[in-house]
Amino acid sequence: MESDADVVIDVIASTGSNLQRVNASEFRSLAMGYRYLEISSYYTSMNGLERAKFSHPNVTYRYVVLPSTPLPTNYFPLSMNQTQVQEIYDRGVQDGQNARVGMIDDHLAAYRMKRADKSAAKASPQVEAETSFLSS
Predict the structure, then answer these.
(1) How far is the C-alpha of 50 from the C-alpha of 115, rounded, in Å?
(2) Cα torsion for 48, 54, 55, 58, to the nearest 10°?
(3) Angle at the Cα of 14 (from 111 to 118), degrees rounded to 5?
(4) Where are the beta strands (DSSP E) in the chain?
(5) 3-state class of 66 per DSSP?
(6) pTM above 0.90, yes or no
(7) Of 27, 43, 53, 70, which cross-links 31 as Cys (Cβ 3.0–4.6 Å)?
(8) How confident is the model at residue 79 (pLDDT cuts 50, 70, 90)?
(9) Burial class of residue 17 (count of CB atoms within 10 Å of its CB; 0-12, 13-18, 19+)
(10) CA dist., res. 56 & res. 48, Å (int)
(11) pLDDT one-digit tens code per residue, 27-63
């Protein structure tokens, strides 16, 4: 390859556009840990896409396929049943069929909005008052 302009990349991710707001007030240790992993995975995946696009602006990111809804999960890795595996497979096929060229820009725009919402929440006086007990 002579330049980045000759490179075409298709991305298939297992996390992404489906990070949902939840009421975590009743979560206990395992649920809170799992929620942390969901959030961390989302931001890591989307940040990776953003950094790749920024670092290589001349590369063509043709298809970026992210799950349209949360995938079934299990607290024990690799211990899903046949129904869960089939559901993940079917969802992947459907999301792949719905993919269109240039979706990376849509996904990154949604990610930037979530990131901006998160920054605004940190700067909010109400949030600061509600979480001030954490610093005492």
Answers:
(1) 12
(2) 120
(3) 25
(4) 8-12, 60-65
(5) coil
(6) no
(7) 27
(8) confident
(9) buried
(10) 12
(11) 999 889 888 888 888 888 888 989 999 999 999 989 8
